[in-house]
Amino acid sequence: MYQYDEYDQRLVDERVEQFRDQVRRRLSGELSEDEFKPLRLMNGLYLQLHAYMLRVAIPYGTLSSAQMRTLATLARRWDRGYGHFTTRQNIQYNWPKLEDVPDMLAELAKVGMHAIQTSGNCIRNVTADHFAGVARDEIEDPRIWAEIIRQWSTLHPEFSFLPRKFKIAITGSPNDRAAVKVHDIGLRMLRNADGDVGFEVIVGGGQGRTPFIGETIRAFLPKQHLLSYLEAILRVYNQYGRRDNSFKARIKILVNALGAAEFARQVEAEWAHLRDGALTLPAAEVDRIAAQFAPPVLPPVAEPIPAFDMARLTDPAFGRWARTNLFAHKVPGYASVLISLKPVGGVPGDATADQMDALADLADRYSQGEIRVTHGQNLVLPSVGKAHLPDLWQQLTALGLAEANIGLVSDIIACPGLDYCALANARSIPIAQRISQRFADIGRQHDIGELQLKISGCINACGHHHVGHIGILGVDKKGEEFYQITLGGKAEEDAALGKIVGPAFSYDAVVDAVETIVDTYLVERRSGERFIDTYRRTGLAPFRARLYGETIDAAA
Amino acid sequence: MPLLERGRLIDDDWTDVADDLPVPARGRLILPLARWLSDHAPGPQPGRSLGVRLPGDRPTEVDRLVGRFDGLDLIAIRFAGFRDGRGFSMARLLRERHGFAGILRAEGPLLPDQLRFLQRCGFDAVALPEVARLADWQRFLREISVVYQPAADAAATVLAYRHGARAVA
Ligand code: SF4
Could you read off the pLDDT of B8-40 as tens digits, one per residue? Predict the structure, then answer.
């Protein structure tokens, strides 16, 4: 893992003191709320419906056990005993007091963490594949480049007042686990015909009210050019992105208005001036950062591993968990363990301070002290010896963290919605809770199989409903909460946007509607088909027929 | 209007010359861009300094000025609002790509915490709002001492510290 050197540390420490002074001046009345607002929004502090919310960056989703303990401390000492892991590999605290925030930030700085650029119209926390460094299918660890981007983008003098927020995601594997096609910039690592490593550069993806799948503007960018190329993209966007309407200000609107080819031409023209300039990183710096992401020393263990196989056979609950919550590790005899933050009836992504502390201990004992945060709002212990899995599972079970539902219908992504968010049309969290209760039978969930359900409380789409196999969007109908359902969205390398199935459902009816959709799939599916496969074969028709009867066609 | 120029607070002695008025023989004078670009642009003259103003929301205007820096002592970029960051790119392009070496001044409703960004992008003067507290502005120059990325200023980046100046030359 990357360790801050004295310069990284100094910047974060100085930023804490700067913010402490800003808060002091706000509390003393020297600054009005109007004057303070742009300052706090440079540092992840929002004013929500009921209280301030502090968003802390977890760069590229990697945490040490010490960092996790600090997150627990923040939750316990300054919040209500829990934190909320988000879809962008951040953690949010929903109830901090303004006067405490500088101390929270100082505590974070001690373990090399911060809230810099977790809000505002700037380059946000860079996200990456949560299996970076350990995945079997990986070309190179994308976190090396994510850290390089983190440093380049931090307090960037030219790009701190962009038309709108800007999100970059990076994956080191051809199998996209970072949703790179629905980011402002997506970077997919690949090897060219000569065997050199570089990036496919994808621009203009995004969700919100005008969702787009990103377009490739460069099929192969040699990796040493990454920063100059990013600077070229950002410079074109900063100058020519729309600023007259915040709903049309994301880069996707510019790319779409110009066309990807013309946008690419402008970027290349800008890049011609920048390439091989001061942004070309010296090899010594790339090596310095890469060395800190050196893979842990894991002696390979010959498979099969009897203790693991035995437990799978003899304990069906463990067997189920092993089926959904493990991911192939590049070293034989090890697995990456997914820890579900989606218990039946729980709030997706929430973890208590005690759970965070316990997970830090488990990471120390079983996974070289490392933890990852996924954009699916779950956690990962990246490198666990398979022989230890039965023990680990027992302990996770005791903590309420062994839900065997990764990738299943109750592994729901939900935005905060009307329970917290001032922009919401409708609640998201209670819908997620009721759906997970409806499908509480874990055997039934396993029978249904892979199904991604995503819920947003308004068109801003923080819950990524556009790319859910089943997407649920909160809408306002004459002051009442209604929910529009889309089917067939997908966020991975074959990304697609969901299609609206028909008229929206009321708060009371929406869970029944989801169950009808799942039941329709079970009737329609052919052997081996996942929900998304069946949908792609049949289209909306059978789902509409079951949901709305004959009437829909007459009405449509 | 107070002017913060190269770190010092001074009185702004630049004055605007309206489109249809003759250009005075002496003084520090800011002309509309169109007039500077026209064929009858005033030439150099002892005791007279000339500048132009670019709207901060029209980045393409930078291209129109390229090649017309001779005799130009100042370029003012007027930001439309503190959220409109186009002027930062315009400044870097004027300095780093087109080599403008005169005074580059930022104007408009800017915030104190933008001062360091302005400076890093090549601005060496800022027209402060009338009510500005100078201390608020200067504070932001000192508070953060680390810079990660190369820009239009001479600040040494972390790379220079980490690997020695030669590594980033
Ligand atoms: S999708 Fe809407 S309701 Fe949900 S968090 Fe985003 S802005 Fe708030």
Answer: 888 889 999 988 888 899 999 999 898 899 877
What is A6-109's CATH topology? Sulfite Reductase Hemoprotein; domain 2 (3.90.480)
CB B87 within 8 A of CB B148: no
> Regarding predicted confidence, which is higher, B141 or A115?
A115
Taking Cα atoms as reference points, which of A326, A330, A312 lies closest to residue A380? A326
Q: Name which residue sits closest to atom 2 of ligand 1, judged by CA.
A: A458
Q: How far is the CA of A46 from the centre of ligand 1 (A)?
A: 13
Chain A residues in contact with B116 by the CB 8 A cut-off are: 157
Where residue B80 sits, what CATH number does that domain have? 3.20.20.70
Quote the pLDDT of residue B1: 65
- Whether residue B57 contacts residue B86, with contact meaning beta carbons closer than 8 Å, is answered with yes
pLDDT digits (tens, 9 = 90+) for A24-80: 999 999 889 988 998 899 899 998 888 899 999 999 999 999 999 999 999 999 999
Contacts of A94 (CB under 8 A, 6+ apart): A48, A51, A53, A79, A80, A84, A416, A420
Question: Do the domain assignments include residue B34?
Answer: yes
CATH architecture of A306-398: Alpha-Beta Complex (3.90)
pTM, 2 dp: 0.93
- Within a domain: residue B151? no
Q: How many domains in chain B?
A: 1
Ranges for all domains in chain A classified under CATH 3.90.480.20: 6-109, 306-398
| CATH 3.30.413.10, chain A: domain bounds | 135-291, 413-555
* pLDDT above 70: percentage of residues in chain A: 99
Rounded CA-CA distance A325/A404 in Å is 6
Identify the pLDDT of residue A88.
87
Residue B66 lies in a domain: yes
Q: Nearest Cα to A91, choosing from A74, A103, A106, A66?
A: A74
* pLDDT for residue A551 is more than 60: no
Tens digits of per-residue pLDDT, A433-451?
999 999 999 999 999 999 9
Question: Of B166, B167, B83, B145, which is closest to residue A243 (Cα–Cα)?
Answer: B83
What are the start-end ranges of the E strands in A214-301?
A: 215-222
**Superfamily the domain A135-291 falls into:** Sulfite Reductase Hemoprotein, domain 1 (3.30.413.10)
Residue of B nearest to A164 (CA): B83
Class of domain A413-555: alpha beta
CA of A518 to the centre of ligand 1 (A): 25
% pLDDT > 90, chain A = 90
Residues with CB under 6 Å of ligand 1 are: A 415-417, 421, 423-424, 456-458, 460-463
For residue B48, is it within any domain? yes
Rounded distance from Cα A476 to ligand 1 centre (Å): 13
State how far the Cα of A168 lies from the Cα of A202, in Å rounded to an integer.
10
- Of the two residues A552 and B138, the one the predictor is more confident about is B138
